[in-house]
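Session log. Operator J.P. requested a structure for one protein chain; no other inputs attached. Running the standard single-chain path with token output.
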Amino acid sequence: CTEIIITIYKKMDETKKKKKKTAECCGYPISIFFIVVNEFCERFSYYGMRAVLVLYFRYFLLWDDDLATSIYHAFVALCYLTPILGAIIADSWLGKFKTIIYLSIVYAIGQVTMAVSTIHDITDANRDGTPDNFTFHIFCKYFEFDFIFIFSVFILILFAIKNRFRHRGSRYPKREHWMDWADEKYDVHTHTHSSVLSLQKLLIAQIKMVLKVLFLYIPLPMFWMLFDQKGSRWTLQATTMSGDFGAFILQPDQVQTVNPILILTLVPIMDRLIFPLIQKCGLNFSPLKRMTVGMLFAAMAFVAAALVQIEIDKTLPNFPSSSESQLKVVNIYNKTLNVTISPNKYLLIYSFESSADYMTLDHQDITVSLNTNPVITKAFSLIKGGRQTLIIPSNPTLMYLVSVHQSKMFVNGWTADLNITNLDSIEPSATSNYTLVSHGKRDFVLRHGEQWCEFSRKFGFGASYTFLIPSTVFSTDSKTEVEDMKPNSVHMALQIPQYFLITTGEVMFSVTGLQFSYSQAPKKQAGWLCTNAVGNIIVLIVAELGKLPKQWAEYVLFASLLVAVSIIFSIMAYFYTYIDPAEIEAQIRKEQGLEPEEKEKETLEMEEKDEGQKNDQEVKKKQDIRFVKIRLCWNMLIYTL
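Structure written below.
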């Protein structure tokens, strides 16, 4: 396997030298423009789907916050792991362009499958707005294949470890680097061609450079652990806030747009103003120092998120714990009732009114008694960890429980069926399904035959209402409104500081990190993507195992972990020595005789041009860095759309 990968490497090396000049437009190959259009569509699709993914899990599949967060981050982790497979396929099998085409088709199939899984009506037989078969929708979501691919370069790494273990002891001389123990993989006794041995030397040198950078990458997943939560925890936080900005309404998933807008603003400001100013002040603000500061900014962002969460918690209802139940009683009977709930709850509820607030009960099974003549008694089993409303209809013997959601519900106290705007017909003493409505003023028309009346109501974010319709509804236009949950009062604008801090951290950490990777490793960026994947896996683990009682406490925990890791990273960065991979590779090529004979004859001329080559290399590095920034801004522009 090692000989195969070295042979492939050699062919790729020769191909680069024999590359034909392709047609260009504006200084770029024409193929670049096709790739740009393809990436626009891919990024538009990815960011658009990811922005609403956690809300799809939470409000469509009805998963709790922790499960929705875990699955979201599992998805993002896979997104950043699979490019490793794509890189291998492109480099050693299909080539870049066929890989883009074929995997774009797979991508499109996945998006179509995802879209189909969001259609309620596929399994919603009774048209109540909720799927009847969640298993079908979940299976659509996770129809994918797994990948296991062993890198050929690992063989050299494993051989080096094995060879070092075999030659342990003081009688064997030490080597400069533990990867040097892979030199014996192919030696003169195996009759391997000298060019293969030379390419192996080059490959070992490149592995050393990559491993040096990968070691420095070890703390980096902690940054992504925080950063990618803006699409999960922060979006869920926004669902408990108000997005009414007066001139426009901002939805919880749309607040993420603040990040790309700030990216497009901060990248040029940092690049043209902040960093040059720091340099003029004589401070050595190296790439690794920038990354450390970026991690600290991300930690501050989560402290800001924790402060916002504390304010939100002050306004949220007192929801029951997993071992408790909550109950409210609604009376649409035509008389005032004394309601006794075992063992010691006593309520006086007037006709077409409700109990003042939800009662918290620490037991699931209750008995409800009404002071009618004769006395009516009925047993109920409550849902643990949930809120329910006990409806006492015009015939009290038929009282029943309804689970409460963040939406609206109508209770028909009239003597016949009622038709209400956008709802099915409601039978007497029955309730409608809880129905989600968007923020703002909504008009409703109640109709029975030729009789009708209408009313309007302005709905706030996160509120829940029950409307009691009396038997005199058409003669008096009267109705009773019960507010089950108050609308969100903390404004989404309070999230802007945390988005500003996390975006500043992203500019200093992510952009600089990519520049550092390009300058310190031989153009192998799969390891950088892996840091993002590992960070999302850590969030998944914490969400499933942490189970902190308060969300603000989880934010503080994440911030504290990142501060600790940033200190470790700063120590590692202090002892890091910067290298020039191109110079090292050129030296090894020269030592191993990998340069063409024609160039060897022109050694003197090449030495004279060394200074010019160095300048060319500097220009190339600047072009690579500029490309990283342009690509990031391009992605953020698509994200904003």
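Operator note: Residues 58 and 283 are 48 Å apart (CA to CA).
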